[in-house]
Write a structure and sequence with these properties.
Layout: H1 2-31, H2 38-61, H3 69-97, H4 102-125
Amino acid sequence: MKRHAFELLRYGINGVAATAVHFAVLSFNLNVLGFQSAGVANMLAAVFGITASFIGSRYFVFPRTGDTIIAQAVKFSGLYGVIALLHGLILLVWTDWYGLDYKPGFLIATVAQISMSYFGNKFLVFKV
C-alpha cells in the first residue's frame, strides 16, 4: 500500500512538472517567438509536455520496467492519442451536442484523462 501511495505521489508530481513544461513552452511560443495562433503554439507545446510526461513516467513514476524505450514510446503515443480523442469526444458531446457549459465538461474529461493515463501507463505501457 505504501509503495502504491508513493507511486501516486510521483505520478502527481510528474503531471505537474509536465504541465509546467507545456505551459512554459506555450508562453514562450506566444510571447517570445510571436506565434500568431494560440492553437498552433499549443500543439507544439503539447509535444514538449507529452515528452516530459513520458520521460518522467519512464524514469520517475514507473522505473521498474523491462521494455525498450522505443517500444514504450510507441505504446505511450498510442495511449495518449486515444486519451486525446476521448477528451475531445467528451467535450463534443457535453458542449456541442447538449449545449452545456464547457468548464464542467472539461473537468469531467480531465478526470477521465488522468485515470486512463495512470492505469494505461501502469498496466499497458510500463507494465508494473
